Recover the amino acids of this structure.
């Protein structure tokens, strides 16, 4: 499970590197539940958040507006939220993605589960491009990396910045510190 973690926001795409047209076919209640369970477990076990709050974004604009803009939010996303809540995970949604990332909304959750790649990465990179870290959740070891790609297009030009790499190394160190009760990202 991929998480983008920045100082003020953590996002998790449920589907990752697939075309937007393929997302509705790939998205299942089971995939959302599995992704959320791994996210909640690592927020507790690695990040030290005792009872993580998960905001679950809708797939469609305005989270489908009760079926007026697609049925996926009612047929796929909402049942996943119900299962997670029945399991004792503090999950809520589906929520409209267009209002999920403003400062007041972010205060209400520890991570946002997003239905597709750009829904998760655009807010993370817009808010913290040089500070966000890619963290792979659900592994028996810690894996972090810069939130951007390899940047071969700027290699050797003297314009690359090390900020995201440094942030990734610092977060890996904090996650590895077993004496840390809570990790502030």
């Amino acid at each position: 499970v991929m998480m983008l973690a920045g100082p003020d926001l953590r996002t998790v795409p449920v589907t990752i590197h697939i075309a937007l047209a393929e997302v509705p076919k790939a998205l299942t209640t089971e995939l959302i539940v599995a992704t959320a369970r791994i996210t909640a477990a690592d927020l507790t076990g690695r990040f030290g958040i005792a009872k993580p709050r998960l905001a679950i974004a809708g797939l469609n604009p305005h989270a489908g507006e009760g079926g007026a803009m697609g049925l996926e939010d009612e047929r796929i996303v909402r049942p996943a939220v119900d299962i997670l809540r029945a399991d004792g995970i503090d999950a809520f949604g589906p929520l409209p993605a267009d209002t999920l990332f403003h400062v007041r909304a972010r205060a209400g959750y520890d991570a946002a589960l997003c239905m597709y790649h750009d829904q998760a990465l655009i807010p993370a990179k817009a808010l913290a491009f040089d500070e966000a870290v890619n963290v792979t959740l659900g592994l028996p070891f810690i894996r972090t990396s810069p939130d951007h790609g390899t940047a071969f297009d700027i290699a050797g030009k003297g314009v690359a910045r090390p900020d995201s790499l440094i942030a990734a190394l610092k977060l890996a160190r904090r996650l590895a510190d077993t004496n840390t009760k809570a990790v502030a990202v």
In short: The chain has one domain: 2-176.
